[in-house]
Each structure stands twice: as structure tokens, then as C-alpha cells.
């Protein structure tokens, strides 16, 4: 009982009462603190008053515990499903953080529980470390190594049909801005022309910041095709990331720059210099799974579903329901969707699967393979018209002719 | 190389290399090893020395209490 020494008003009697409860360590600590605080406010506390507080807390705690045979899954499904009916059905795009469109509402929730391989609107929140987070120039360096730079951002492209040539006039300022480590635009133009040679398989001629090249065989069609291909070549940054928005955000101690990206490539971004690889996240749970593992994916599912509900003003959904969903989705060591192709489709019972979706297929397959149903689940017994194995339905009472042992049972 | 265990989404993964410790856990919850949630051998957050059949102890920063301890069985 060393910890009671820290509190002036907690007597040994009160401490004994607290320690005697079924509360968890953390709740016990909070009861100690509350009693101490109240006693300070009112100049003392009697053992009776303390006992009232303690039993009050314990009763609430016991009330909120799940009872054996409680159908937690069904309760969770209802608790998420009902607010789901109030969510907006068709705000597919809505200006989210920093002018980036993010899918929200019901479509996003469905996307999450379906565990889609790629979200409708992938995005990343990139945090920066050290001076990259505080210095705007440095932060921009990171922006240029993430945002994909294509030829149209760097200069003008024109086609000379008479000489069968594509001519690129690069803009000196843009080159130096996007390649901050170089001081000579011609040098950068050299890098660009090399990239073009590699990507398109043509020979280029470079003079200053002007690059010219033509098709290997003079052909009007090839020339046009080259221009088309040229537009898709990524000269700097990550191909998947179309746009990066930089934003200054308030912290408890000062400010920092945070990048929001349209498109995501989580693994690539984590290894870029200046990126804080402990806080950067993305909204694609599969990318989180691949790079950080199942446990991180579980956290991400909880965060994403909770945020989706909160943004719709439905934040009174208890987080435990979402934690249960995330637990089930990651139970197997990888992300499984809720639904026909995931959890519901992998149930052991034929009848349970048939009751969900595509009834006939499941029954037919089961008949072909000679499957056997134990009838021990909920759905099977509803179908069979027998008591289900949850709640009072799973309790059997047995009355014997002999008196059971001496004294009352434990509970 | 990025150290994934430093990421704030990744809780601590600790290998239970003492068979007795594993038995204790299984006895506490009255389950067998295969009833535990799983984690892939290839999971990036897993300690390098973990082999299929091992049990890892995961200490999460819980949303409903301070810390939540869960166990996962390593599978191939």
C-alpha cells in the first residue's frame, strides 16, 4: 500500500475499500485521485462519503461489463448500421483537409469494411522531421521529391511537323525550383534529356535548356505518339502522387509544415529524406498493412472508421464496436473484408453462408461436396427453428433428484 | 531503411521465447494455440527471430484503457 502515502486524505480504511473492488488498476488510481481532489475542495472526507463514491464507481463499472453469452457482434452491427442510415449517401467528393477531395460518408465506410485494394481517393498525410518541418524552403524540397513532375510543368512542348521534331523549351526558374540541389539549369536539362532517352528510346539533342528529338523512323503517327508518351513520363517525384498541398499547422510548441497528397505510395514516401517515418500515414489500409503490419492496419481501420463517422456528426458510436470490427478483419494475420468474399463467406456452416448472399450457389456447392452442418451457430438455429446459442438460449437448466452438495453455489 | 517499429501506429511486438510463458497465457485464457489471432511470418513489425508456431505478445496503447495486451500466433 505504498501508493496511499501520496494522498493526504486517503486513510487506510478508504484504501482498503478501494482495493477491495473489482476495478482495474487504472480506475482505482482515478478513484484515489478523485477522492483526494474532492477532499481538498471541501476540506476533508469521511469514510462513508468515500464509500459512496467507491460503490458508485464500482456499480457503473460492473454495469458496463459485457455479460457472458451477450451477442457482441450483433450489437456492434446494429450500433454501426443504425447511424449508417443517417449518413450521406452521395457526397462522393467533399473538400476535406487542405482542398483535397476525400471520399466520405457511407461510400467511405463501405470501402473500409469491404477492404478494397485501393480507396476511391487515396491520400497521405506526410509529417516532416527536424528543420524540414519548420523551414518552408526545406519543406518544398520534400514536396518536389514526392509530387510527380511531368513535362508540361517544366516547359513548353511544340511539334515541328516539317522536320519531324519535338521541341521542348524548359523554363529555367522552374528547373531550379524543382531541383533545388542544382544551380545550373543546363545541368538539370541534361538529366531531363537522359530521362527522355531512357523512357522513349530516342536520341535527343540538347542546347542549353532546349531539348529536341524526333522519331527514329520519320513518321507523322510516331511523332504524335512520342508527344503523347512524353506527357506521361515522370521526371521527378512519385508517379502515383498527382498533387501535394503544403499546410502550416499549429502544434502545442510552435508550428510545423504538414504535406497532404492526392494519391498515395506509402512505402516510397517513408524512405524519402526529411519525412518523419513515425507519424506519416495514408488512408489505404492495405498499404499500411504491407509496410507496417497487421497491428498497424488494425489501428488504421479503427481510426479511419471513427473519423468517417465523426465527420458525419455520428461520433456517439462507441469505439468498442469499431475495435471489434477491426479485430475481426485482422484476426487472420491479414486484412479480410466483411462480406461474401471475406468473413461471412468463410464461415463453417453452410446454412449461415447460404443465409447471407447467393443462397443457391452455396447450397448447391454444399450438396455437391456432401457438406455437413453442426447446427451450432445462431443463423442455423433460426432457420431450423430451435433456440439459438446466445443469451438465455445457451443456458441449460438441469434438475436432479438428489440434493446438490452442501451450501449455496458460488454465484 | 525505415524502422517500422518506431511508427506510432505500430505497437510493441515481443516474442514469447519461453515455452512456459506461452503455456501460462494459454492457461489464463483457457484456449489452445490455434485459437489465438494470427500474424504472418512476413509481417514487417514482427521481430526477426520469430518462427511459425511462436507466440508474440503485443502491448497496445488502448483507446479504452491504458494498455491492452494481446497475443498472436505466428503463421507461415
TrEMBL record, chain A:
Domain of life: Archaea
Domain RNA polymerase Rpb1: residue ranges: 59-349
Compartments, as annotated in UniProt: Cytoplasm
GO molecular function terms listed in the Swiss-Prot or TrEMBL record: DNA binding; DNA-directed RNA polymerase activity
A biological process from GO: DNA-templated transcription
Main enzyme class: transferase
Protein EC: 2.7.7.6
Family the entry assigns: Belongs to the RNA polymerase beta' chain family.
NCBIfam families associated with the record: RNA_pol_rpoA2
Protein name: DNA-directed RNA polymerase subunit Rpo1C
Species whose genome carries this gene: Halopenitus persicus
Annotated gene: rpo1C
TrEMBL record, chain B:
MF terms (GO), sorted A to Z: DNA binding; DNA-directed RNA polymerase activity
GO biological process: transcription by RNA polymerase II; transcription elongation by RNA polymerase I; tRNA transcription by RNA polymerase III
Protein keywords: Cytoplasm, DNA-directed RNA polymerase, Nucleotidyltransferase, Transcription, Transferase
Enzyme Commission identifier(s): 2.7.7.6
Keyword Metal-binding belongs to the record: no
Occurrences of domain RNA polymerase subunit H/Rpb5 C-terminal (ranges): 2-74
This protein's GO CC annotations: cytoplasm; DNA-directed RNA polymerase complex
A Pfam short name: RNA_pol_Rpb5_C
InterPro entries named in the record: Arch_Rpo5/euc_Rpb5 (IPR014381), RNA_pol_subH/Rpb5_C (IPR000783), RPB5-like_sf (IPR035913)
Subcellular location: Cytoplasm
Domain of life where this protein originates: Archaea
Presence of keyword Protein biosynthesis: no
Catalytic activity: RNA(n) + a ribonucleoside 5'-triphosphate = RNA(n+1) + diphosphate
Enzyme class, first EC level, given as a word: transferase
Major localisation: cytoplasm
Functional description taken from the UniProt entry: DNA-dependent RNA polymerase (RNAP) catalyzes the transcription of DNA into RNA using the four ribonucleoside triphosphates as substrates.
Subunit field text: Part of the RNA polymerase complex.
Protein family according to the UniProt entry: Belongs to the archaeal Rpo5/eukaryotic RPB5 RNA polymerase subunit family.
PANTHER family cross-referenced by the UniProt entry: DNA-DIRECTED RNA POLYMERASES I, II, AND III SUBUNIT RPABC1 (PTHR10535)
Protein name as annotated: DNA-directed RNA polymerase subunit Rpo5
Organism encoding this protein: Halopenitus persicus
Gene label: rpo5
Amino acid at each position: 500500500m505504498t501508493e496511499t502515502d501520496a494522498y493526504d486524505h486517503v486513510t487506510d480504511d478508504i484504501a482498503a475499500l478501494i482495493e477491495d473492488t473489482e476495478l482495474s488498476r487504472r480506475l482505482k488510481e482515478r478513484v484515489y485521485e478523485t477522492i483526494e481532489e474532492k477532499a481538498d475542495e471541501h476540506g476533508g472526507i469521511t469514510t462513508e462519503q468515500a464509500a459512496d463514491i467507491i460503490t458508485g464507481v464500482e456499480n457503473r463499472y460492473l454495469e458496463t461489463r459485457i455479460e457472458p453469452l451477450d451477442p457482441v457482434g450483433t450489437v456492434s452491427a446494429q450500433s454501426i448500421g443504425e447511424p449508417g442510415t443517417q449518413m450521406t449517401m452521395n457526397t462522393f467528393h467533399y473538400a476535406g483537409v487542405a482542398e483535397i477531395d476525400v471520399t466520405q460518408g457511407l461510400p467511405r465506410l463501405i470501402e473500409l469494411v469491404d477492404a478494397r485494394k485501393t480507396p476511391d481517393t487515396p491520400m497521405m498525410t506526410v509529417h516532416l522531421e527536424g528543420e524540414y518541418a519548420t523551414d518552408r524552403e526545406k519543406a518544398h524540397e520534400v514536396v518536389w521529391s514526392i509530387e510527380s513532375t511531368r513535362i508540361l510543368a517544366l516547359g513548353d512542348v511544340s511539334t515541328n511537323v516539317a522536320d519531324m521534331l519535338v521541341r521542348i523549351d524548359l523554363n529555367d526558374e522552374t528547373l531550379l525550383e524543382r531541383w533545388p540541389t542544382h544551380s545550373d539549369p543546363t545541368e538539370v536539362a541534361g538529366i531531363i534529356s537522359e530521362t527522355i532517352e531512357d523512357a522513349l528510346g530516342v536520341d535527343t539533342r540538347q542546347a542549353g535548356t532546349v531539348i529536341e528529338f524526333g522519331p527514329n523512323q520519320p513518321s507523322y503517327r510516331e511523332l504524335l505518339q512520342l508527344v503523347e508518351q512524353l506527357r506521361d513520363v515522370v521526371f521527378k517525384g512519385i508517379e502515383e502522387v498527382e498533387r501535394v498541398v503544403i499546410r502550416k499547422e499549429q502544434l502545442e510548441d510552435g508550428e510545423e509544415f504538414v504535406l497532404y497528397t492526392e494519391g498515395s505510395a506509402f512505402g516510397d514516401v517513408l524512405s524519402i529524406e526529411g519525412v518523419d517515418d513515425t507519424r506519416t500515414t495514408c488512408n489505404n489500409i492495405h498499404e499500411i498493412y504491407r509496410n507496417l503490419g497487421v497491428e498497424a492496419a488494425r489501428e488504421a481501420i479503427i481510426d479511419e472508421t471513427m473519423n468517417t463517422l465523426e465527420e458525419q456528426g455520428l461520433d456517439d458510436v462507441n469505439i468498442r464496436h469499431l475495435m471489434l470490427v477491426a479485430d475481426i478483419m485482422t484476426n487472420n494475420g491479414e486484412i479480410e473484408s466483411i462480406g461474401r468474399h471475406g468473413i461471412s463467406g468463410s464461415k463453417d456452416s453452410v446454412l449461415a453462408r447460404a443465409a447471407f448472399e447467393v443462397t443457391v450457389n452455396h447450397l448447391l456447392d454444399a450438396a455437391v461436396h456432401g457438406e455437413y452442418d453442426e447446427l451450432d451457430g445462431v443463423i442455423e438455429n433460426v432457420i431450423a427453428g430451435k433456440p439459438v446459442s446466445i443469451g438465455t438460449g445457451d443456458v441449460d437448466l438441469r434438475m436432479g433428484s438428489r440434493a446438490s452438495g452442501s451450501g449455496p453455489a458460488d454465484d | 531503411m525505415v524502422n517500422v517499429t518506431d511508427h506510432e501506429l505500430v505497437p510493441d511486438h515481443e516474442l514469447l521465447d519461453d515455452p512456459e510463458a506461452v503455456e501460462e497465457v494459454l492457461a489464463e485464457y483457457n484456449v489452445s494455440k490455434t485459437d489465438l489471432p494470427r500474424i504472418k511470418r512476413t509481417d514487417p513489425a514482427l521481430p526477426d527471430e520469430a518462427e511459425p508456431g511462436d507466440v508474440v505478445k503485443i502491448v497496445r496503447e488502448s483507446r479504452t484503457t491504458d494498455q491492452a495486451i494481446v497475443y498472436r500466433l505466428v503463421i507461415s
